[in-house]
Amino acid sequence: MTDSWAAFGADLHIEPVGAGLRSGLMNALRDAVRTGRLAPGTRLPSSRTLAADLGIARNTVADAYAELVAEGWLTARQGSGTRVARRATAAVTRGVPSRPVRRRPTHNLMPGSPDVSSFPRAEWLKAARRALTSAPDAAFGYDDPRGRAELRGVLADYLARARGVYADPERIVICSGFVHGLSLMGKVLRRHRVRATAVESYGLDIHRDLLAEAGLRTPRLPVDGLGARTGELADAPGVGAVLLTPAHQFPTGVPLHPDRRAAAVDWARSSGGLILEDDYDGEFRYDRQPVGALQGLDPDRVVHMGTASKSLAPGLRLGWMVLPDALVEGVCDVRGGPEWMSGTPDQLTLAEFIGSGAYDRHVRAMRLRYRRRRDQLVEALAERAPDVRVSGIAAGLHAVLELPEGTEQSVVQAATWQGLALEPLSRFRHPDAPPGRDGLVIGYGTPSESGWAGALDALCRVLP
User: Fold this and answer.
1) Does residue 260 register a pLDDT over 80?
2) How far apart are CA 248 and CA 227, in angstroms?
């Protein structure tokens, strides 16, 4: 017999429809009994406990329990609490056992993705037609391991203009997104006898894992309100490289302070180290012009890494690395033969899309849309959750919500029950970092335009 609500609570999220939360709760409990996730005799939490977990009124839970008792799904006894009726699942247990079904969330506020419903299909199709019509036959054979010259040429111009990057086309290598590029850099660093790459104390575990798979240690570099504390690199034993998100630290949302940008470059020059610059959303700044890329301070000590995943769509699988001259050949060597190249048609299309000005127009349009969403988020919190504030600069596709101490896990649980997908700030903390503040990392760029209002309303309902 299962007596612990925590043992099955994460599987019973509510998708409020129709009349509201009561019907959603009843449907979730019926489904859990029907599929066998709630075994006969399982004791349910008290109405007070469940209401607190879900962030809803106690009467809503009590009414739902009462109706399910009347229908025969549950039983209630004085002193014994509310339990799953033994006869309620008889028909299910006599047949083929049902398997638990993991439902997709009703609302998605997970960080890391743009609004893919806004992908510029018509403009992309026009660019593809022009690019493929004019492409030479040789473009569809095995080609330069750095990528198509057309794309590297327009990227060099665009990155110099928009991000302040020194980007000679000969120093650009096209890859299948940031993760692919970081994997290649991990192998190159090991070949250069680097043993450790410092990473920010808040960041993505997949990045740490990729570096670890290359045989590199990943000591943490503390992050505070001014970004990564790069002055501590000089005292970090054995560190030969550092991975930074200087334009907009992920996930805390702060830019790297000018003094710390200078300290990072000074460390790289004096130690012979290398800076890996993740410029994942550097084009999206809403309160001022975007800060130029760190690479412009020293192109021979900084690897600038960008991607179309945030500006266009992650499904394109197109990214780029602007490398020091000394690393270009090594990166091409470790990526393998031509079968590991990014697809030529997409490279040619992106080259045409950027060169025609369509990329700039799309970024400007999305900058306005994301700025509006962030403003709406701040306004909604001020009205409906005044104890929660947004931290970090007005930039990017996500925001950090500062929660009252001790509330992070309860809010995440309530969100799960209401069909709202989001991430706690603790999810991105380095394993060796000390406990930090409670918070949520809200991807306001992820929902479609039509789904944004509902997602924002669902978020406000679960906040303390």
Assistant:
1) yes
2) 9
